[in-house]
Amino acid sequence: MDQPSGRSFMQVLCEKYSPENFPYRRGPGMGVHVPATPQGSPMKDRLNLPSVLVLNSCGITCAGDENEIAAFCAHVSELDLSDNKLEDWHEVSKIVSNVPHLEFLNLSSNPLSLSVLERRCAGSFAGVRKLVLNNSKASWETVHTILQELPDLEELFLCLNDYETVSCSPVCCQSLKLLHITDNNLQDWTEIRKLGIMFPSLDTLILANNNLTTIEESEDSLARLFPNLRSINLHKSGLHCWEDIDKLNSFPKLEEVKLLGIPLLQSYTTEERRKLLIASRLPSIVKLNGSIVADGEREDSERFFIRYYMEFPEEEVPFRYHELVTKYGKLEPLAVVDLRPQSSAKVEVHFKDKVEEMSIRLDQTVAELKKQLKTVVQLSTSNMLLFYLDHEAPFGPEEMKYNSRALHSYGIRDGDKLYVESRMK
């Protein structure tokens, strides 16, 4: 059912967390708190609020009574207001300024681009450490205002905001550790480098689903731009050159890379993608596409890399190939082993004093083999006892008593023996 428009934060709060809808529970770990309320408050003892409030998709357009927000939300640390109808930053400020211990705020999918965020309003967000503005179409001017007023901001989410460019902030944000800016339209590296300038302490940069086509930067400059970057996600970017992957090694602290769905890797098999990335282009990372790179896998990948390029023309062989040859020496090509099941076998058929060599199909059943043997041993299938002797087995012949069993299930190989006896002796 659609929520009515024009509802206040406090109205929705009272409805959702009333004792009828959210009964108070005692006991450790329940995460429910009943705050003290002002003397004479009509709401006293009515609401049982947890410290994490989820009020998404409730049609909220305004704050409501600020005194009541302050009375009931003094202990709240996380607030999800995503997918509401908040379009005025002043109303958001009225809510947040009365939640003094707020650390996480989600404002995704609210039409906040319709108003300007003034610095005095942004000041009410000062304690927030994690801010989500996905699909809010927040302008860079709004983001800059927030950055200036949130000295402890550690994580910022700016996905689905239709950014084609990045506007540099007049001041650096030294506190930000994680930037999630997926599903935008950032294609030019000159825009991405601005993020390094704005966020010099960045630990994690998630750029998935941006059509970044190349990394146009010198190695020295990259190291200065992202000196603390530990993890980067470039899933479904437009990178198409190995040289772009090489440049990721310029980030001095990089440990984790995600690179699925890029044009460069489309022509390789799954095994080739991972091993070539580990061995040649990202020799120092400890996690690739979410999986830990163990020491054994790194060595396997490096040996794979040598064998992969050993037949290439000299001018097409990467420099890394020569480094690895120095480390491991020139390797012999791996033997080609055909693991397909054997389709036929040459066996000896023994009956009385006769021995005949035959080629039999292994995809047939025991019953079908008996039909094939009728003309050899001159016995009817019903009067035929059939035994199989593996020439390497120490246990003697095995009776092939189940007519519907496939021959390949016995593991018959060239040189094995079949013995035929008559039931009537």
Overview of this protein structure:
- The termini are far apart.
- β7 (104-106), α4 and β8 form a beta-alpha-beta unit.
- The protein has 425 residues and is an alpha/beta fold.
- It has helices at 9-16, 66-72, 89-96, 119-122, 140-149, 189-198, 219-225, 242-247, 270-281, 295-309, 319-328, 366-377, and strands at 7-8, 32-33, 49-50, 52-54, 60-62, 78-80, 104-106, 130-132, 155-157, 178-180, 204-206, 231-233, 256-258, 287-288, 291-292, 344-351, 354-361, 384-389, 398-399, 417-422.
- The protein is built from twelve helices and 20 strands.
- The strands form four sheets. Strands 4-6-7-8-9-10-11-12-13-14-15 form an eleven-stranded mixed beta sheet, with no helix packed on it. The chain has a five-stranded mixed beta sheet with strand order 17-16-20-18-19, with helices on one face.
- α9 (270-281) crosses α10 (295-309) and α10 crosses α11 (319-328).
- The protein has two domains: 48-327, Leucine-rich repeat, LRR (right-handed beta-alpha superhelix); 344-422, Ubiquitin-like (UB roll) (Roll).
Q: Could you give the topology of this structure?
A:
Elements: E1 7-8, H1 9-16, E2 32-33, E3 49-50, E4 52-54, E5 60-62, H2 66-72, E6 78-80, H3 89-96, E7 104-106, H4 119-122, E8 130-132, H5 140-149, E9 155-157, E10 178-180, H6 189-198, E11 204-206, H7 219-225, E12 231-233, H8 242-247, E13 256-258, H9 270-281, E14 287-288, E15 291-292, H10 295-309, H11 319-328, E16 344-351, E17 354-361, H12 366-377, E18 384-389, E19 398-399, E20 417-422
Parallel strand pairs: 1-5, 4-6, 6-7, 7-8, 8-9, 9-10, 10-11, 11-12, 12-13, 13-14, 16-20
Antiparallel strand pairs: 2-3, 14-15, 16-17, 18-19, 18-20
